[in-house]
Structures are given as C-alpha cells and as structure tokens.
Specification:
The chain has helices at 77-80, 119-126, 130-134, 153-162, 186-191, 194-199, 214-226; strands spanning 5-17, 20-26, 37-44, 47-54, 63-69, 88-92, 109-115, 137-144, 167-173, 206-212, 240-244. By secondary structure, the protein is an alpha/beta fold. It has a six-stranded antiparallel beta sheet with strand order 4-3-6-1-2-5. A five-stranded parallel beta sheet has the order 9-8-7-10-11, sandwiched between helices. It starts with a strand and ends with a strand. Bound molecules: flavin-adenine dinucleotide and NADP nicotinamide-adenine-dinucleotide phosphate (NAP).
C-alpha cells in the first residue's frame, strides 16, 4: 500500500551522545495516541527511505519528537545524523501500534521497563493523564550502557515533582559505575532482589510494559514467567505488554 508522506521541518535536535539523538520536528500529522509509532524518512537517491520510530512527544504537543541511536551501517540512521535545523523530514500521515494505555489491563503497579531508546515511548505515555489516573504506583526502570545515555533526566525530574508519591525511577548503567544507579542488567537486578527491595513485590496486581532491546524483552518475559505473569493479548489479557525495536 502506498504511503502518504507529509513534509515536515526539523525544529531542534538534542545530541545526548555522538550516537544518540532526539529530533523534534513540525507536527502536521493527524491525531495519534501516546505509545504509538510512525514512520519517518529521508529522500535518499531520489527515494524516500523510512523506518518506524516511537513518538516521544505526546498528542497534545504541537511538535513531533523521536529518539534514535545511530546504527553505523544502517540505511537511514547515518543520514538522520546529518540533519540540520529546517531540513525536510518525511513523516507518514498516520501513526500505528498497540503499545498504548488502552491495551494495558488495570492493576495497582505499572512497571515501565526500557533499555536505550526504549525510554522514549514511556516519556510520551507519562506526559498523558491515563497512567497516573489508572495506577497507584508507577515504576520507571531505564537500562543503559553508560551514564551519558541516561536521557530525558529533566523531564523525569518534572514527573517526579508532579507525582512525588506515585513515581519511582530506577537507573541501571551496565558498563560503568556511577552514583545513584544500579550496575547490572535489569533482569539481573530483579533476580537478585535489588529492584524489588526498592519497589516492592512483583505479582499479578502488576502490569509490565517492556520496550527496547529484544534480548532484554525476551529475558524479562522469561523471568516474569517465573512470577506467573504472561503476555497480554486481546484474546487473553495478561500482565506483560511489549514493543520490540529490532
Ligand atoms: C515499532 C518500532 C519502533 C521503533 N522505534 C525506534 C525508536 O524509537 N528509536 C530507534 O532508535 N529505533 C526504533 N526502531 C528501530 C528503527 O525502526 C530502525 O530499525 C533503526 O533506526 C535502524 O534503522 P537503519 O535504517 O539505520 O538500519 P537498517 O539498515 O534498517 O539496519 C537495521 C539493522 O540494525 C539493527 N538495528 C535496528 N534497530 C536498531 C537499534 N535501535 N539499535 C541497534 N541496532 C538496531 C538490526 O540488527 C537491524 O537488522 C523501531 C522499530 C520498530 C519496529
Ligand atoms: N549506545 C550507543 O551510543 C551506540 C552507538 C553505536 C551503535 N550502537 C548500537 O545500537 C544498538 C543499541 O544500543 P543501545 O546502547 O541503545 O542499547 P543496548 O545495546 O540494547 O544496551 C542498553 C542496555 O540494555 C542492556 N542489555 C543488553 N542485552 C540485555 C538483555 N538480554 N537483558 C537485559 N539487558 C540487556 C545493556 O547491557 P550490557 O551493557 O550488559 O550489554 C545496556 O545496559 C546496539 O546494537 C549498539 O551496538 C549503540
């Protein structure tokens, strides 16, 4: 099916590291739901090359934002890396995906587990009211290799200030030791009880949303299986909703 492309201009970029960048661009697309992804593309040799990206922005904001990691031999991301303010980016005219709050069953605790750029979609969700209204407690866990990849710190601080008794934020940094962050992969830090000592037990009153590295997601699904939690499907509601990036 042919894609309808909308031309949009780059408004701003944040270079978190040499390879990790957020791009903000004009929002000219129809309404979307927090948690969805859209396709963004660039004209390369006369053809639009595009890939799906989760939106970090929220539906009420007048810009679109995504965060990407540069895949050095990738087809699109090295070109995204050359973008400058006011350059043209092509955005698909609609957003899709089921990693949205309406697909997550009710519960007491909402665990948002991300590695790398997987954090972005949770930033979008947390900018909306639904997670705060539906869950007593929200636990955001972000796993990265190095401390400079701990993105959106200011935004998370704002969430913490707005919801001081509702949000717990755990950082894991695996390839260096820093203060106030755990130093192991997320599933390991759950297995050795470090995370549950801080955030409380995992049981069927918990809903998990997992996003990022597919190996992390597979490991988490296996681990949560040991607690009796299963994938959430429309035909059979469960406790684990997930989005894999590759
Ligand atoms: C629903 C969905 C949402 C996505 N959201 C994001 C997002 O928010 N941010 C983001 O950076 N990516 C996201 N991706 C991945 C993205 O679509 C691209 O695959 C990625 O940016 C690489 O594109 P490329 O053309 O440079 O590489 P390609 O030429 O397409 O090469 C892809 C190869 O690189 C590897 N790869 C793909 N994505 C990654 C990655 N993120 N990290 C490491 N290796 C990777 C895989 O082995 C893959 O086979 C998402 C993918 C899906 C399916
Ligand atoms: N980060 C960058 O600046 C950069 C630059 C160029 C290319 N890339 C490429 O882009 C891709 C994504 O990089 P990324 O840094 O965003 O993400 P990543 O490699 O997925 O790492 C993010 C975090 O996920 C952890 N992790 C990996 N496998 C896991 C598993 N099975 N279970 C639990 N946690 C797991 C990593 O731990 P470990 O440290 O223990 O692996 C790290 O803490 C990689 O293929 C990478 O080679 C990244």
């Amino acid at each position: 099916m042919a894609i309808n492309w909308i031309e949009s201009k780059v408004i701003d970029q944040i270079k978190w590291t040499d390879d990790l960048v957020s791009i903000r661009f004009e929002n000219k697309v129809p309404a979307y739901t927090a948690g969805q992804f859209t396709k963004i593309g660039l004209k390369i040799d006369g053809e639009i090359i595009s890939r799906p990206y989760s939106l970090v922005s929220a539906p009420h904001e007048d810009f679109l934002e995504v965060i990407y990691v540069n895949v050095p031999d990738g087809k699109l991301t090295p070109k995204l890396h050359n973008l400058k303010k006011d350059d043209t980016i092509y955005v698909m005219d609609k957003s899709s995906g089921f990693f949205v709050m309406d697909e997550v069953p009710d519960g007491d605790k909402l665990w948002l587990i991300a590695t790398g750029t997987g954090l972005g979609v949770f930033i979008s969700l947390l900018k909306t009211d639904a997670p705060w209204e539906r869950f007593k407690e929200i636990i955001l866990v972000h796993g990265v290799r190095t401390a400079d990849e701990l993105t959106y710190q200011k935004q998370i601080e704002e969430f913490q200030n707005e919801h001081p008794n509702q949000l717990k934020y755990i950082q894991t940094v695996t390839r260096e030791k820093i203060e106030n962050a755990l130093n192991s992969r997320i599933p390991e830090a759950i297995k050795d009880n470090t995370i549950t000592d801080i955030c409380g037990n995992i049981d069927k009153s918990s809903q998990f949303m997992l996003c990022g590295n597919p190996d992390m997601i597979n490991d988490m699904v296996d681990l949560l299986g040991e607690y009796g939690l299963e994938r959430n499907r429309r035909s059979k509601p469960g406790n684990i909703t997930l989005e894999k990036y590759w």
